[in-house]
Amino acid sequence: MQKDEQLQILKDLIQIQTPNGNELAVSEYIGKLFDRYHIDYRIDRFGNNRANLIAEIGAGETDRILAFEGHQDTVAVSDPDKWTHDPFQPVITNDGKLYGRGSADMKSGLAAEVISLIELATAKVPISGKVRLIATAGEEYGTPGANRLAADNVAGDVDAMVVGEPTSGQVIYAHSGSLNYQIKSYGKAVHSSIPDKGINAIVGLTKYIDAEAGLFDKAATDPFLGTVKHSVTLIEGGEQVNIIPGYADLYGNVRPTLSFDNDHVIQAIETAVDKINQETDYHLEFSLIHNFHPVETNPKNPFIQLVDQAAHDSYSDREVKADIINGATDASVFIKNNPKMAVVVLGPDAWKMAHQVNEYTTLTSFYETIQAYQKIAERYFK
């Protein structure tokens, strides 16, 4: 496949608008490509124009399975007027940057995975096991696609997985989990002239905020992911200025590690809430919203070493090294059913470009990622 054909695939994917939905259009587009190259695939349709796609190549003579995983959705364009170009009409500038929503996160990575599968198949690269592509719906919010595939155990037999999120060619061997939660505070609304007759629900939340500040101070430090990151990120409450609020709520986010995992985080929050309820007149309730698990593969694992070498051999003009991130990926869902699966995150351009106004990827990194993915597959089955 020529570079102009590879580039057209990326541009086509960006033009398919998939902010928090409409992934079926991407799956059908990829499916037509695979039809042309006689690659087996299936589309898992669900909901309102939502879909996952699973494809495979390889002889299947051994039970080794290497997966390339990516998501088909993007975040929304919240400020279109701030974009220099139409976010869904990709534009290439003289410095080799391609602008568009999803260009970094992660239609460039997804396109590279699709193209790599096609290149491996057409070149008849010897693959004794299977190379599987897993393209999901809804990674940006709630992971409904990955949840469906995990329930169907689609990654249960995978030995190693490459997630194509943007990493600037850095080999990411571990990432934290992500746990979103809500705290509801119930008080008693009264006129603000008689506050002693009521119970201020907002003040109830401040009790939790004070406790949360030190809630994870004694949490074990993970040897790879470090300390648990945590924040209260949103607070709502009150009806008007002269009423003591009878209800308020807040939202928080925690980044669990393997050393202080999701269960430990939940237990710590519940203990703090119970203590406030028992020792004060305030009544708080905890509820879990999203619960993504940390993913960690020892950097000395042979698969990490293989990917690291393939990255060194593929990416130019940058220092390629193994590292960690504090974001979460679909692998957080798949790892629950297959904790022994080796996982690496590797893709074109920077994590920091994800979700940004004037999001872009560089063509150099895109083409180099295609080469890296092919090298990984070729060497994995040698």
From TrEMBL:
This is Probable succinyl-diaminopimelate desuccinylase. It is an enzyme of class 3 (hydrolase). Residues 173-279 form the Peptidase M20 dimerisation domain. Its cofactor is Co(2+); Zn(2+). GO terms for molecular function: metal ion binding; succinyl-diaminopimelate desuccinylase activity. The lineage of its organism: Bacteria, Bacillati, Bacillota, Bacilli, Lactobacillales. It holds the Pfam family Peptidase_M20. Pathway: Amino-acid biosynthesis; L-lysine biosynthesis via DAP pathway; LL-2,6-diaminopimelate from (S)-tetrahydrodipicolinate (succinylase route): step 3/3. Keywords: Amino-acid biosynthesis, Cobalt, Diaminopimelate biosynthesis, Hydrolase, Lysine biosynthesis, Metal-binding, Zinc. NCBIfam families: DapE-ArgE (TIGR01910), PRK08588.1 (NF006365). One of its GO terms (biological process) is diaminopimelate biosynthetic process. PROSITE patterns: ARGE_DAPE_CPG2_1, ARGE_DAPE_CPG2_2. Its EC number is 3.5.1.18. It catalyses: N-succinyl-(2S,6S)-2,6-diaminopimelate + H2O = (2S,6S)-2,6-diaminopimelate + succinate. Belongs to the peptidase M20A family. It comes from the Bacteria. Gene3D superfamilies: 3.30.70.360, Zn peptidases.
